[in-house]
């Protein structure tokens, strides 16, 4: 168990460094000269050369990458080409907005998904099961931006219950968070159902029943604990799904977060900003997956002896 | 079983209704794509500026968009783009992922570690983000988007093929082939790949729905298919500005996406249960 954690702890920074190297390398292939982009359209050849010198673009790739990494560790991710503000300050403003949205959706997806899936498994073939499975199938096949737009039309335009766009009150969260949670809720519900069904058929559940435990105890103490292991794994993987989904949801709702920032940055070829926002997103996904891995070793005692 | 024939057929249909329904819908998509010029009532690109944002009526069952183009015709033509998206990106990720998985699983050791490390790194990127990164370099277009989607699905096929290879290469018939002096090439292609084929097809069907969702998301963001091409995600994006006054612009393409994703998922689930029930919950 200790070995496992140490191994994971060692691999973690290695993954982040490789990811940053890939992002850095891929963005070097962006067509167009970044020095010219930053110096402006009217700049003279001399000014462009000066900019190239300043950005260190005439140095060897690995020297550039080394500098980038060194600065990144210090919290310096460069300057946005478009707004000329530091990337870290722009990210600092938009990341909390994305984080709040993703966390709210995450809680919704996990709570509704796990509870619905488990109820569907306990009452297999009943109307509850059928309703849950129908919604799960629907959720897994509809595009989240379409659900968002239809929700906007119904609840904001037609009924006027919720605000259309923007941020501010808790009411602004409802539509974006629900439409973002829509897809992962469906997958989590499906996974929880099948995981629970598998466990319910095991012999130790029969034993628990045979020794006269009430149904509640059988399900909560015996079944749920074992069913949780695959569920937690799937839930962990969904943080990335949600963060990626946020890119689209934020665009629909004009939500001032990381996703919208990234889409705009791509449109303006603002490569330091693309670099920073992708790096931040991937780092947070890798971190969450790492925490989930550790969590799984905690709830799955079998792993402790590996 | 000695059941009367009628009951047996009923049982088969009941058990495999997912495959039958999903398969029929997938076939319907393919025919819609091929027969689009004959099925569509109008030219999907013909503008009629006297009849813009018209709600559904007898002449235009799905209404018209902001340029007066017939939405039904555009949805029908959109099936072509969707088929192309699925075909190109699924085949690309199979072409890259399967050989990597075969090599990793068959030879093991350092090669295996290196390949799996690369695949895990790609896997660490949330799909759309990697696609956005790639599109930002290649520029937004249909084919660049498909390359991006193919790359982020490579780890799925790579891992699956590796795991299948690891299982199959321990089986007796591979041992027998080796004893007969079969070359590695022959074992890989004739024995392992042939037996890994069914699960790979299942996975391809299961990922086809995901391809449509990713492609429409990227097009919705303006990073994929560019207007005026009739693509469902781009159509929903176009309808976004008119959502309050003419929701039908976005409504119908969204329904089309849902039906296609649903049918590939049903087909994939059904095939998986039919070909290998043990794989349930695993892929």
Task: Tell me what the structure shows.
- The complex is a heterodimer of chains A (about 300) and B (about 280).
- Chain A is built from 13 helices and no strands.
- Chain A has helices at about 1-30, 35-40, 45-55, 60-75, 85-120, 125-140, 145-160, 170-200, 205-210, 215-255, 260-265, 270-300, 300-305.
- In chain A, helix 6 packs across helix 8 and helix 11 packs antiparallel against helix 12 (about 270-300).
- The longest helix of chain A is centred in the last third of the chain and has 39 residues, at about 215-255.
- Chain B is mainly α and about 280 residues long.
- Helices cover about 75% and strands about 0% of the residues of chain B.
- In chain B, helix 5 packs across helix 7 and helix 9 packs parallel to helix 10.
- At the A-B interface, helix 1, helix 6, helix 7, helix 8 and helix 10 of A face helix 5, helix 6, helix 9, helix 10 and helix 11 of B.
Give a brief rundown of this model.
The complex is a heterodimer of chains A (306) and B (283). By secondary structure, chain A is mainly α.
Structure classification of chain A: mainly alpha
Terminal residue distance of chain A:
6 Å
Structural domain tally of chain A: 2
Question: Percent range for helical residues of chain B?
Answer: over 70%
Classification by helices and strands of chain B: mainly alpha
Largest beta-sheet details of chain B: none
In terms of DSSP E residues, the strand content of chain A is under 5%
Oligomer: heterodimer
The CATH architecture classification of chain B is Orthogonal Bundle
- The helix-strand sequence of chain A is HHHHHHHHHHHHH
The proportion of residues in beta strands of chain B is: under 5%
CATH H-level superfamily title of chain B: MetI-like
How many individual β-strands of chain A? 0
Q: What's the count of strands of chain B? A: 0
- As a whole number of angstroms, the C-alpha radius of gyration of chain A is 24 Å
